[in-house]
Design goal:
Distance between the termini: 28 Å
GO molecular function: 8-oxo-7,8-dihydroguanine DNA N-glycosylase activity; class I DNA-(apurinic or apyrimidinic site) endonuclease activity; damaged DNA binding; double-stranded DNA binding; zinc ion binding
Keywords: DNA damage, DNA repair, DNA-binding, Glycosidase, Hydrolase, Lyase, Metal-binding, Multifunctional enzyme, Zinc, Zinc-finger
Number of helices: 7
Shape: globular
Oligomer: single chain
Pfam family, one: H2TH
InterPro entries: DNA_glyclase_Znf_dom_DNA_BS, FPG_cat, FPG_Glyclase, FPG_N, H2TH_FPG, Ribosomal_uS13-like_H2TH, Znf_DNA_glyclase/AP_lyase, Znf_FPG/IleRS
Strand order of the largest sheet: 1-7-8-5-6
CATH class of the largest domain: Alpha Beta
Low-confidence stretches: none
Mean pLDDT: 93
CATH architecture of the largest domain: Alpha-Beta Barrel
Bound molecules: zinc ion
Cofactor: Zn(2+)
């Protein structure tokens, strides 16, 4: 599943091409992806303009005029493809040749804009969704989802982070940072990377952490997510434009899925273990 850096990359890419566009049509062949019947959904958004594209946790928000918002979750295999005059932008899960054939057999929703450009929602397993909400509804929804702070904003402070750790002392650190109630946007890739950066085994209990270790995790979250956004994310996110740019953080990963290979810091062997049902890679020498 795309994590914060991948979803942020998609949002930033879409913002560049969608803001100011007016919706002239919408179609969807999978009712469960929507929270309104198709006819009503399409009637509400027709003639509305895209004002902004934002992100909250791992969701993309299309802000429309008249205070309507479309909340998009890519889930396991979702992909957004924008095609305009001479440009094609792909975000989310990789599906081969997405720009060549549109719509294709994985296309389940299509937004058409007044300039005839289109935004396609492709999804192999159909777990993704595009839900329509009023702005004020959205705020309540985020509260209901019990979403924790955005790690790259000022609401995520060292003090608040330390306090949140006290609430779940028995939790393993990797599970803790992957739990959106504590901090949003971190999945398996970046959780492994943060643990390596912090010198902590993914299964370390929160209650065993010292002040310096807590500080290191906090710094690791900020540093690694920021670097990953700058590199346009990892593997999952292919952002392709006329310049052919794609996400390149995969080359910078220090530990994720490197089990059986040499640790880049000490040369020892990277091991793996299951933490909360997820395969985790770590270095037994560098991580305590
Ligand atoms: Zn090592």
């Amino acid at each position: 599943m795309p994590e914060l850096p991948e979803v942020e990359t998609v949002s930033q890419g879409l913002a560049k091409v969608l803001v100011g566009k007016k919706i002239s049509g919408f179609d969807c062949d999978t009712p469960k992806m929507l929270n309104y019947p198709l006819k009503k959904y399409a009637a509400i958004i027709r003639s509305l303009e895209v004002v902004a594209v934002k992100r909250r946790a791992k969701m993309i928000i299309l802000e429309l005029t008249s205070d309507w918002r479309i909340l998009i979750h890519l889930k396991m295999t979702g992909q957004l493809v924008f095609r305009g005059k001479g440009e094609c932008l792909i975000g989310g899960h990789t599906i081969d040749k997405s720009c060549e054939q549109l719509p294709n057999k994985f296309t389940h929703a299509t937004f058409t804009f007044s300039d005839r450009s289109r935004l396609y929602f492709n999804d192999i397993r159909k777990f993704g969704w595009l839900r329509l909400h009023r702005q004020e509804e959205l705020e309540k929804l985020f509260v209901k989802m019990a979403l924790g702070p955005e790690p790259l904003t000022r609401e995520f402070t060292p003090g608040k982070f330390a306090k949140s750790l006290l609430r779940r002392p028995k939790s393993k650190i990797k599970q803790f940072i992957m739990d959106a109630r504590n901090v949003v946007g971190i999945g398996n890739i970046y959780a492994d990377e943060v643990c390596f950066f912090s010198g902590l085994r993914p299964d370390r209990r929160v209650e065993s952490l010292g002040q310096t270790e807590i500080k290191k995790i906090y710094q690791g979250i900020k540093k690694i997510l920021t670097a990953a956004i700058a590199a346009r994310g990892t593997t999952f996110s292919n952002y392709v434009n006329s310049n052919g740019e794609a996400g390149s953080y995969a080359k910078k990963l220090k530990v994720y899925q490197r089990y059986g290979r040499k640790c880049l810091r000490c040369g020892g062997e990277i091991k793996r273990q299951k933490v909360g049902g997820r395969t985790s890679s770590y270095c037994p020498t560098c991580q305590k």
